[in-house]
């Protein structure tokens, strides 16, 4: 049986979230997307990781992958699907929320159970109103 020394300093390194990392790069590339080759230049992901993660993101309908010829070689252009542009950051309710300083996942106040929701001024309201505004603009 192994003994654990309570005085031993143990450093726990959080697992790297490569899935979100790639998705954020794709979202950040805008409506024209980014090729898998370009992702190599702006991340520490390997070719195999990019390929595997892109397929997973596509299966989950977060992105599209379009085959494209780049400098005589085939690659995929990765484009984010259905990204909601949340507009000016100053309209984010967290900016004027009195709980902002202590609002954190697993905290006393959490974004998952936003305290301002009770007053119809929380995160959901903001996201929904931005969404409705974008849907009404895109259907005109
Ligand atoms: S998530 Fe809600 S409770 Fe948390 S800071 Fe933003 S507005 Fe406040």
Q: Please provide the count of β strands.
A: 3
Q: What proportion of the residues form beta strands (DSSP E)?
A: 5-15%
Per DSSP, the total helix count is: 4
**Can you say what the CATH homologous superfamily of the largest domain is?**
Winged helix-like DNA-binding domain superfamily/Winged helix DNA-binding domain
Number of individual domains: 2
Strand order of the biggest β-sheet:
1-3-2
Low-confidence stretches: none
Report on the biggest sheet: 3 strands, antiparallel
**What top-tier CATH class of the largest domain fits best?**
Mainly Alpha
Instruction: State the CATH architecture of the largest domain.
Output: Orthogonal Bundle
Derived structural class: alpha+beta
Helix content: 25-40%
- Rg result: 21 Å
Span between N and C termini?
Answer: 69 Å
Average of the residue pLDDT scores: 85
Description:
A three-stranded antiparallel sheet has the order 1-3-2. The chain folds into two domains: 18-80, Orthogonal Bundle (Arc Repressor Mutant, subunit A); 87-138, no CATH class. It is built from four helices and three strands, in the order αβααββα. It is flat, with a radius of gyration of 21 Å. The mean pLDDT is 85. It has helices at residues 18-28, 36-42, 47-59, 123-138, and strands spanning 34-35, 63-70, 73-80. The protein is an alpha+beta fold and 140 residues long. A hairpin with a 2-residue loop joins strand 2 (63-70) and strand 3 (73-80). Bound molecules: iron/sulfur cluster.
């Amino acid at each position: 049986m192994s003994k654990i020394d309570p005085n031993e300093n143990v450093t726990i390194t959080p697992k790297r979230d490569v899935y979100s990392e790639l998705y954020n790069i794709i979202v950040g590339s805008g409506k024209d997307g980014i090729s898998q080759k370009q992702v190599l230049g702006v991340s520490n992901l390997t070719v195999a990781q990019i390929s595997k993660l892109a397929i997973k993101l596509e299966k989950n309908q977060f992105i599209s992958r379009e085959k494209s010829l780049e400098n005589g070689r085939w690659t995929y252009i990765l484009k984010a699907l259905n990204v909601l542009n949340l507009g000016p950051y100053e309209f984010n309710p967290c900016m004027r929320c009195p709980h902002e300083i202590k609002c954190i996942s697993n905290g006393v106040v959490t974004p998952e159970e936003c305290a301002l929701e009770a007053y119809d001024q929380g995160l959901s309201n903001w996201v929904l109103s931005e969404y409705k505004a974008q849907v009404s603009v895109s259907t005109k």
